């Protein structure tokens, strides 16, 4: 079924930035939103990226590598423009994620630290793209005081982190280590 941006019970599968745009994934679709516009565009994933799966778990944009990384199950796809990068998909273990982790539920590139945060429900890993190593694992409620529940999508935008748990989206200030607002998960989608 086609997702409805106005559905108050909408749970977003994944969110990533892409060269200034925000992309919100749900099922076989994603919305593209543009910062300068109130318009958004609903697109089939396969029409944009034919070689990646539907129903993805997580995504993030690497500003260092100008790539988008897509996660589903224990696999990772690296995208350069419309194309899957040679050598992908790879496994989560190629990033040092323990074999016991069956999927990443959310991911974001933290511009402040230069690290990638990989969420697995109530825990998160800090990944260093330069050294290609996991640096720590921590509980979400310790690393992000005030954020509750299992993280289902995450992204950084306008200097803030947005961590989604089901239909709730936490606007989080990493500098102040505090939740600024609790929003609906469809807050950035025009409705």
User: What are the low-pLDDT stretches, counting only 5+ consecutive residues below 50?
Assistant: none
Gap from first CA to last CA: 18 Å
- Rg: 15 Å
Could you name the CATH topology?
Hemopexin
- Biggest β-sheet: count, sense, barrel? 5 strands, antiparallel
Order of helices and strands: EEEEHEEEEEEEEEHEEEE
Hemopexin repeats: 3-52, 53-99, 101-147
Cofactor: Zn(2+); Ca(2+)
Family: Belongs to the peptidase M10A family.
InterPro entries: Hemopexin-like_dom (IPR000585), Hemopexin-like_dom_sf (IPR036375), Hemopexin-like_repeat (IPR018487), Hemopexin_CS (IPR018486)
Write a structural description:
- The protein is mainly β and 191 residues long.
- It has one domain (14-184): Hemopexin-like domain (Hemopexin, 4 Propeller).
- It is 4% helix and 47% strand.
- It contains 2 helices and 17 strands.
- The chain has helices at 45-48, 140-143, and strands at 14-18, 21-26, 29-33, 40-44, 58-62, 67-72, 75-80, 83-84, 90-91, 106-110, 115-120, 123-128, 133-139, 153-157, 160-165, 168-173, 178-184.
- Strands 5, 6, 7, 8 and 9 form a 5-stranded antiparallel sheet that branches. Strands 1-2-3-4 form a 4-stranded antiparallel sheet.
- The model has no long low-confidence stretch (mean pLDDT 93).
Could you outline the blueprint of secondary structure elements for this entry?
Blueprint: E1 14-18, E2 21-26, E3 29-33, E4 40-44, H1 45-48, E5 58-62, E6 67-72, E7 75-80, E8 83-84, E9 90-91, E10 106-110, E11 115-120, E12 123-128, E13 133-139, H2 140-143, E14 153-157, E15 160-165, E16 168-173, E17 178-184
Antiparallel strand pairs: 1-2, 2-3, 3-4, 5-6, 6-7, 7-8, 7-9, 10-11, 11-12, 12-13, 14-15, 15-16, 16-17
């Amino acid at each position: 079924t086609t997702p409805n941006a106005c559905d108050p019970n909408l749970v977003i599968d994944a969110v990533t930035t892409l060269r200034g745009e925000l992309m919100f994934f749900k099922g076989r679709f994603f919305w593209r939103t543009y910062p300068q516009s109130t318009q958004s565009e609903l697109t089939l994933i396969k029409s944009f990226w034919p070689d990646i799966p539907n129903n993805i778990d997580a995504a993030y944009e690497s500003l260092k590598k100008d790539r988008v990384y897509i996660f589903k199950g224990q696999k990772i796809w690296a995208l350069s423009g419309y194309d899957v990068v040679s050598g992908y998909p790879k496994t989560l273990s190629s990033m040092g994620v323990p074999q016991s982790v069956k999927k990443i539920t959310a991911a974001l590139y933290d511009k402040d630290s230069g690290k990638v945060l990989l969420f697995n429900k109530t825990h998160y890993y800090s990944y260093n793209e330069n050294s290609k190593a996991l640096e720590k694992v921590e509980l979400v409620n310790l690393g992000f005081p005030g954020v509750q529940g299992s993280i289902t999508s995450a992204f950084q935008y306008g200097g803030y982190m947005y961590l989604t748990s089901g239909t709730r989206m936490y606007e989080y200030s990493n500098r102040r280590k505090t939740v600024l607002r609790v929003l609906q998960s469809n807050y950035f989608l025009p409705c």
